[in-house]
C-alpha cells in the first residue's frame, strides 16, 4: 500500500500546479480579430504571389540572357576560328610554304593560344616560328611534270581538235559500217 500512496502522491502534484503552467482553455477570436487575421493573410499571399511572378520573370530573363551570351560566344568563336585559320594560311604562305602545306599546317595551330587584339589583329608570330622549326618549308624543291597518262579511249584518227560530238558521230558511223 505504500507503493499505491507513492503513485497517488505523484498524481496529486500535477493537479496542484499553478494556473499559468496548466493549459489555457481555447478562446476563439472575435469576429473583428478574425477578419484582421484573414486580411493580413490575404495580403501576405498576394505579396508572395507577386514575388513568385517577379522571380520567375527574372529567372526567364537571366536564362534568355545566358542563351544570348552563349549564341554570341559560339558565333564569335566560329568567326575567330575562321579568321585565325585564314591569317595562319596567309602567314605560312609568306614564310615559304605552298598553299596546300599552309592549309594543312594551319590545322595544327592551337587556337586557344592565339591572341586577337581589340583592333582585330591576330598575333601568330610565335606559332608560325614554332611550326617553321618543327616543319621546315621545302625550299628549292621543284616538282617535275608527272608521267603522261593515257586513257585508251581515243583512236589514232581522233585528233586533239575533235570535240565530243564529232567523236560520237565517228563512233556511230564506225558501228554502222559506214567508215
CA-based shape: elongated
The count of β-strands is 2
Evaluate the radius of gyration.
Answer: 47 Å
Within the largest sheet, what's the order of strands? 1-2
Verbal overview:
This protein is mostly helical. It has a domain at 33-134. The protein contains five helices and two strands. The protein has helices at residues 2-15, 31-94, 99-106, 125-134, 164-176; strands at residues 115-116, 122-123. It has a two-stranded antiparallel ribbon with strand order 1-2. A hairpin with a 5-residue loop joins strand 1 and strand 2. Helix 2 packs antiparallel against helix 3 (99-106). It is elongated. The termini are far apart. Residues 9-13 have low confidence and may be disordered.
Give the SSE layout.
Elements: H1 2-15, H2 31-94, H3 99-106, E1 115-116, E2 122-123, H4 125-134, H5 164-176
Antiparallel strand pairs: 1-2
Helix pairs in contact: 2-3
What labels would you give this structure?
179 residues, elongated, mainly alpha, two-stranded antiparallel sheet
In short:
With 179 residues, the protein is mostly helical. It has helices at 2-15, 31-94, 99-106, 125-134, 164-176; strands at residues 115-116, 122-123. The chain has a domain at 33-134.
Amino acid at each position: 500500500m505504500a507503493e499505491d500512496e507513492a503513485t497517488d502522491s505523484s498524481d496529486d502534484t500535477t493537479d496542484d500546479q499553478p494556473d499559468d503552467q496548466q493549459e489555457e482553455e481555447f478562446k476563439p477570436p472575435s469576429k473583428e480579430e478574425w477578419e484582421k487575421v484573414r486580411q493580413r493573410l490575404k495580403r501576405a499571399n498576394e505579396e508572395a504571389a507577386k514575388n513568385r511572378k517577379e522571380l520567375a520573370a527574372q529567372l526567364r530573363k537571366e536564362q534568355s540572357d545566358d542563351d544570348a551570351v552563349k549564341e554570341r560566344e559560339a558565333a564569335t568563336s566560329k568567326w575567330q576560328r575562321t579568321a585565325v585559320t585564314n591569317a595562319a594560311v596567309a602567314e605560312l604562305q609568306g614564310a615559304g610554304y605552298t598553299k596546300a602545306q599552309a592549309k594543312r599546317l594551319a590545322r595544327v595551330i592551337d587556337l586557344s593560344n592565339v591572341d586577337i587584339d581589340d583592333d582585330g589583329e591576330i598575333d601568330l608570330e610565335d606559332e608560325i616560328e614554332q611550326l617553321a622549326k618543327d616543319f621546315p618549308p621545302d625550299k628549292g624543291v621543284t616538282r617535275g611534270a608527272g608521267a603522261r597518262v593515257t586513257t585508251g579511249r581515243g583512236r589514232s584518227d581522233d585528233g586533239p581538235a575533235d570535240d565530243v560530238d564529232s567523236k560520237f558521230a565517228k563512233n556511230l558511223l564506225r558501228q554502222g559500217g559506214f567508215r
